[in-house]
Design a protein that fits this description.
heterodimer, A: 55 residues, mainly alpha, 51% helix, disordered C terminus, B: 473 residues, alpha/beta, Rossmann fold, 7-stranded mixed β-sheet, 4-stranded antiparallel β-sheet, 18 helices, 16% strand, globular
Chain lengths: 55, 473
């Protein structure tokens, strides 16, 4: 489940993405999965809830 | 609307940003209004062993649910679910008044809190050095409302703010010897990734942390500036987890702990060693300060032009609290280090140019208070200071005394006569007659018009005169 963010400060998209680099080795799998999901979305494959899952 | 009308009664004008928490003061008490969500977060924090540990270690401000409540002000949208009471911080200070080591220690405290909060299933919703205060030389985190439940899969939302207000200012000072204070005073949000990138050379990018925290950070921020992608959702769906945040925190802790500021030297850093005072004069000066402090019994003392803190330490023997201010950040940084080793909790060291003291800043100019608004002193020590303010700073003697009178404070003030070697050196840089008001007789006349002189003493050199004075009733 994805929780809605209640943050009141602007985190900025780039500042969130950079955390996959600063996360070191632990981030490799997350980066791979994110790009894999983006490719699947681009090619319109996979289950709809995987690409457009509601929060 | 005037500035006074812009204030809600008692509400701290700097605490409006978080919708779940607002600070107000009442009869010297510091209280915090909480929303329903804020109350849920507080209950989670206060029931965790982490809370008692952090308060016990002096890293988190002592806090409890308030009883005997005064009338509550408005200011929290959606109603008040609870009220907390905090231990009072003796004197509020801001990061643009701190030295390098102070900001570094505050940054390390912030990182430690995020790391330990994650371990306890919590998170800090922001990363602002304005949430850290110093009690003496000890940094204390004061924003209880910053703690919230950890949302699994969500990245560290406060990372960007941490970079802008902690990391980049420290990097600039450590790597480029650029003082961060004017940057933080100039922009309440700090230094942006792009600004920091622009200030670094190609060689700087080879330094530890520069490539990721500055260059790549700035690049990604620009690239995704106008994106509509919900990256938080995407990250969560891709399996982002708290270990990534912890890895980042640990790297930042290592990076920041190794940062050093090593300037070439500063104007006054060797002053106490090179001063023309004889031992006897230094001793008489210390004696007069001791006696003045004992007779004034001040609650709050400002030591203006504190140098290495000799007189601040004397004042701290009697006063409740001493704010020791000097424009030389290196001198103050050394004082901070020394006070930390002495476990001296009654002297707050700050760096500030007294000819340009901290004004009100931020939203409506009220968010960050000017120096006197945070608490006027009962006694101000102005030793070896007037000639710098008057000659180097071009502030007329009478205007400086007016400022002190406006504070309503008693004084121990030293007037070095124009024959004093330091005064001669300062005057040599100016045209003849640039400072016609810098004369002992004029100083004494201006002083006597505003203050009752309790005692005056000419030091043995004959070139320095000390005065203990009280504002005229």
């Amino acid at each position: 489940m994805i929780h809605p963010s209640l943050a009141y400060i602007d985190a900025a998209t780039g500042s969130l993405l950079i955390q996959m680099v600063t996360g070191g080795v632990a981030a490799v799998a997350v980066v791979a999965k994110m790009y894999w999901r983006r490719i699947r979305k681009l090619l319109h494959i996979g289950k709809p809830e995987e690409t457009e899952s509601p929060s | 609307m005037t500035q006074q009308e812009a204030k809600l009664p008692g509400i701290e004008p700097g605490s409006f940003r978080d919708p779940d928490s607002r600070v107000f003061t009442s009869n010297g008490r510091v209280l915090r209004l909480l929303s329903e969500q804020g109350l849920a977060d507080w209950q989670m924090l206060s029931s965790s062993p982490l809370f008692a540990e952090l308060v016990g270690e002096g890293k988190l401000v002592g806090t409890r649910e308030a009883d005997d409540l005064p009338d509550l002000p408005g200011g929290l949208h959606g109603g008040v679910a609870a009220v907390l009471e905090h231990d009072v911080i003796p004197f509020v200070s801001y990061p643009y008044e701190w030295t390098f080591s102070m900001l570094r220690d505050a940054a390390l405290l912030q990182l430690e809190l995020v790391r330990r909060a994650i371990g306890a299933g919590m998170m800090l919703k922001d990363s602002s050095p304005y949430n850290v205060q110093f009690v003496g030389a000890q940094p204390v985190f004061v924003d209880i409302g910053s703690f919230e439940r950890l949302r699994e899969g969500e990245p560290w939302v406060g990372y960007r703010q941490f970079c802008m207000l902690f990391l980049y200012p420290l990097l600039l000072e450590a790597w480029k010897d650029i003082p961060f204070q004017p940057w933080l005073r100039g922009n309440i949000a700090g230094i942006s990734p792009q600004e920091c990138r622009n200030l670094l050379s190609g060689r700087d990018l080879l330094r530890r942390g520069a490539l990721t925290h500055v260059a790549l950070h700035s690049r990604l921020e620009r690239r995704y500036e106008r994106t509509d992608t919900d990256v938080k959702k995407e990250l969560a769906q891709s399996g982002f987890h708290k270990e990534l945040i912890l890895a980042n925190i640990k790297r930042l802790e290592r990076l920041i702990a190794r940062l050093e500021w090593q300037p070439e030297g500063s104007e006054w850093s060797g002053y106490e060693l090179t001063t023309t005072y004889s031992d006897d004069d230094a001793e008489r000066k210390a004696q007069l300060v001791t006696e003045a402090v004992r007779s004034e019994k001040p609650r709050l003392v400002w030591d203006l032009g504190c140098n290495e803190g000799r007189h601040a330490r004397i004042a701290a023997e009697t006063a409740d609290y001493v704010v020791a201010i000097d424009s030389d950040a290196l001198v103050v940084d050394r004082l901070y280090a020394a006070l930390g080793k002495e476990s001296q909790g009654k002297i707050l060291p700050l760096t500030m140019n007294l000819v340009d003291p901290s004004p009100g800043l931020g939203w409506r100019g009220l968010e960050r208070k000017s120096l006197p608004e945070r608490g006027s002193p009962d006694l101000a020590l102005c030793l070896a200071l007037v000639h710098h303010v008057s000659i180097s700073g071009n502030v007329p003697v009478a205007e400086f005394l007016d400022w002190l009178l406006g504070l309503g404070t008693a004084l121990v003030i030293e007037f070095p006569t124009p024959e004093d070697p330091m005064v001669r050196r300062l005057l040599m840089r100016k045209r003849p007659n640039d400072h016609p008001d810098y004369r002992r007789d004029w100083f004494e006349r201006c002083l006597a018009e505003r203050f009752d002189v309790v005692r005056s003493e000419v030091l043995s050199s004959g070139m320095r005169v000390l005065y203990h004075a009280r504002p005229k009733a």
